[in-house]
Amino acid sequence: MLVTEAKHWRVHLAPNQSLIGRCVIPLKRHAGDLADLTQDEMIEFFHLVSAIEDSLKRAFAATMFNWSCYMNNAYQETPPDPHVHWWAVPRYSHVVEFEGCIFNDPHFGNPYDHSRWLEVPVDLRRKIANRIRANLPPL
Question: Hey, what domains does the chain have and what are their CATH numbers?
Fold first, then answer.
């Protein structure tokens, strides 16, 4: 579910909302490694980091963020075909209530549990994406 896009990147709400507001940010063009990114792509990405963090703080009072660029799954295929993308994972020191649903972060202060999975109904995902979008500063 698309939240917003910039010249080089798209921001999608991730299917897994065990940590409300979790997003995936793929590069629009194909690049298989961070070393392949242009200076413009990197600068724009860092602007997106600021915008996404600001939005999630305002939308859901996110406490802090974990950012990651895993591409391990691409190497489970032969030949591998990795594509640069980032994960924005907001972390919460408190429970978040949104649209009657309770979201918590039981591992706050520690690495988050990648096996925790919460796929919310499409209508709720749309409302989460709209809340993030409404709180985004201009890109």
Answer: 2-134 (3.30.428.10)
